[in-house]
Queue: 2 jobs
Job 1
Amino acid sequence: MKNYPVPLSKSDLMSVESPARYVGGEFNAVIKEDMMEELERTGKTSYVRFAFCFPDIYEIGMSNLALQILYHVLNESDFVACERAFSPWLDMDKILREKNIPLYSQETKTPLCDFDILGFTLGYEMCYTNVLQMLDLGRIPLLAKDRGEDDPIICCGGPCAYNIEPMADFFDIALMGEGEEMILELSEKIREYKLSKETDHPISKEELLYQCAQIEGIYVPCFYDVSYSREHGASVTPNREGIPETVTKRIIKDLDTVSYPTSPVVSNMRVVHDRSYLEVFRGCIRGCRFCQAGFIYRPVREKSEEVLCRQGMELEKNTGYDEMGLLSLSTSDYTEFPKLATDLLETFEGHHTSLSLPSLRLDSFSLDLMEKVQSTRKSGLTFAPEAGTQRLRDVINKNIREENIFSALELAFEGGWSTVKLYFMLGLPTETDEDVLGIADLARRIEQLYYDVGRRTGQRMRKLEITVSTSLFIPKPFTPFQWEKQDTKEELIRKQKLLKENIRSRNIHYAWHDFDSSVWEVVLARGDRRLAPVLLEGYKSGLIFDAWDDQFKFSRWLEILERHGLSVEDFSREHHEEETLPWEHINVGVTKKFLLSERHKAYAETTTPSCREKCSGCGVTCFGVGECFKEKVKGGVSYAAE
């Protein structure tokens, strides 16, 4: 134990914006008392001490389901004690530095440097320098090569880990795929390493990392040499025998049997998503060509309706939340979705607990379900057509047609809804001005439909509110569009202005995403190890909380990038199909051949036949799930293994 002075004083806590972020003591939080007694008695413990780190503020981290799941899985183990830590906001960051107080865990106020392992979840590239903030405040060397035998092992997981190359110099280990089983296997190795220090034959950290690299799904960056060229792309090759050339992601085959937190930690303050969650299934059947999640989370695996209902009852009992969300990439595609929703609503009837429905697919909307949800709590509807014309929706494989959009919204308006949010993207491959103007035209026609429904039904209509929101296309790894270029900032601004000028109704509000952050996100999403010194310099110059618009300083990042001989165009450019991409040594189960075929289809087809009339397989490796889903075609994508 390094015995740094923690926790903070009362006056320190009272001087920051949200003291509740830093005090812990939440309902259902876990402190292993036998471990604390052992520490008090001997100054050490046989437990593996695991700090689950979220590189953003508490309110966002506590809304993250992966945190709750892995916190629960680790603390169920009889040899791991898991605690939580979050990025302190700027006011607390300043106090910690001025008073030389290390960043500590929520549960026991232990400095991060006193843990055996730190695990970061990386859900968004713009949080990268916050990882460095947490390591720095936690008294841990930033670069993996600078850490000694007594420093914690630093690992990461989450969607950004699939291309961890920009951050590879800072992590000892990256976990590819779903972590419930893998993280326990890793913890067992850490336990052996820790206990060996008390023997005559201690395991070295290098040997530990080598053993961890043998675990399926674990990537150890230091065991790979890298090089880059504009012509041939990236080369990432093992630098010692026994290290796999390709790291294959892990999946959980049976979601019914995997442990799930029905007694999650309940925050003492309001967080971003202040409700309980049921995870309905993993994966997505849709195959939208821009969507990274739709490819990296394959194959689809559902929980049974019986298990979900039981977990829903336990969550309501153990948390006290009056709202429960159903979580997946496309919840209304769940096979027994109507029955599940009905059974949950019946269970919650009279309990003042409502069911929160996610963004629904326009082609699977149900008036009956709308009315049932309305009986508890009515809110706005959120849909994501993504593109304003059918041609472009076919290019991106959105698999909804205009008639689906209008028939669904007609049902919604008949059901009494008057608030609608519509999400689109600008800058999609092959996009033209006609596609951009199609967004405005679609919104106007939805507005007209609302008043047509009112006249036809004779019902008294409330004020209509339509929000058109546009994000910017980002070519992500492991998608059919991973080779595409990103539109220039100037071109994106022109398209945004064109759309804005053509939305004139007071009932239609236009909201748009920041350009600069989207440009930087592309750099990080498609980056490689050349970005590590860029990120390190950026952090040391004070650039943190890039995910927050008021903290993001794009011009300074451009200056740093240029000083290191790099440019935005190095990463936002179109990549030719023959070059090796920086993440190709990671196998997510979807073949490069399949991704290329999907890219070619996007450019070849101006009008895509109905997805139910064709099946070419989805390129997914079965991962031993135990069945081939070739015949199970729903909503446009089969599950067949290639």
Note: The two ends are 52 Å apart (CA to CA).
Job 2
Amino acid sequence: MRRIGVSKGIVAAIIIIIAIIIAAALSYKPTAPSKPTAPPKKKPPVTLTLPMKSDIVALNPLNPNTNTVWNVYVFWLVDPSLPLITLKSDWSDFTGWAAKSWEISAENGRTVFTVHLRQGMKWSDGKPITADDLIFSLNYVIEKDLAPTWKEMFDKAVKVDDLTVKIYLKDQYPLAYFWSYIPSIIPKQVYENVKDPVHWEPKISEYVGAGPYKLVKWVKGQYVELEKKDSWWGTSIWNGPLVDKIILRVIKTDDAILLALKKKDVAADTWYVPPTSLVMVNSLPYIKVITKADPGFYYLAFNLRKKPMSDLAFRKAIAYCTPKEEIVKTLLLGQAYPMPAAPISEFYAEHGYLAPNLPKYEFNLTKAKEVLEEAGYKDVNGDGWLEMPDGSPIKVTILTPSYDPIRVRAGEMIAANAKKVGLNVESRAVDFNTIVEDVWPSSGEPTFDMYILGWGVTDLEPFYLRDFFHSSQDVVVTHGMGLNSPGYNNSKFDEVIDAAVKTIDKNKRKQLFYEAEKYLAGDLPYVPLYSRAANYAYNIEDWAGWCAEWQNGPASWDNIWTFLHIHKAT
């Protein structure tokens, strides 16, 4: 049997290896185990905090009775209703939002809008936004009687492909008017199951939107919290948003808002800086203040469905009792413009939309007494108060929003002057939402006598005159959907303003606006009070990316451009 031999060379190599192992073992010194690498720290979320002077009322974008300016902050950012187009940041023209592009054509004297939707848009539940959503939306608001003006304009919508829709109108309309009234896109998968959209109130978990933010919390009376979406279809287009969270805090008074601005607890004043606070705010080195002529305006409205407000002589007397110049000088310290007899703000006047030779109702208590006396108002029972010509007593109230001391005081001044001429008028400050519920009830007639509020306006031209005063927009006729709160009904005004919104030629349209204004100045459904030289304050030390060229202010309810681009300053 053969033996397997091992060569001396191999044995020597094995001995050397063993020696190396033994030497390494003898020289080994144990060391402390290395600590595991810590994960990189997450950057804290960037949170933008802004004030709201009143809480939001509801989460339903289709209920006009609850859609206050503060609700719109949430709606714009969450987009439960997605606009097709919007204004450019400088208000110079329109730009696409959900619509990538559009064409306008005419067929048999009617306007046709061909809309091309952006590709890749999605609702927050992940479902794509398509032509089917747009067509459903256009028809749904008519079926549910949600948009009186749109119902008058709209004929049909035809699907061309998944992203293209042709919208046929019943008449010709300029783009500026069409933009003001075309319904936004709502999610078909949500609303096709909602039978009563006015009274439906979605839960936060049911809140489907297409905007850059999602609603995560609403603590009533305190704040609303919004959170940036991880993936939003618009980011690749607009390179935003850049803020992780937005907190909208309910801060009801100007003083409290300005204190929060001073302490940097909020980044901007979303309302207007009161004239009395301008010196203090301008002294803050980290705050910038800009001034713009506000397109909106403030007004006293009459309920024309009730006596004595239904009597033109009474309305003229109240107009003569309204010290517009004094209100502007003493309450606004000159930071506003007294309104003409027609509701045309300084912004529109600067753009040539104020009719010449309108009647004037300058403050004059003697004229007020003369108007009432000529109309047959007398103190029948000797109690010091005038009765109506039919002997009916007069006791009426001006409602004012309690959060705005300027309008509260203006109401008190008008009421005090009315008392001087024998009219039993009082002014009462109440919660803003109380006025809204009274003025725009979903059923029945409004019960108010008079109220003072303001309109925020974003029309490029004063098309809003039709909204506020056309008889078809009466809040009673429309079950609270229209904006004609006084119940103004003048067939001649209706005819003129209808012609204005259907006239393509801009100069001819302007002349028709002038004619409409003369009716309003003569009939006085409103006593227009003032439009502001609006002072907007915002923090430029800690925040950058403000869109300050936007007409309604850098942090206003409708300024989506700020909310897309604002970021922490470096």
Note: The longest strand covers residues 526-539.
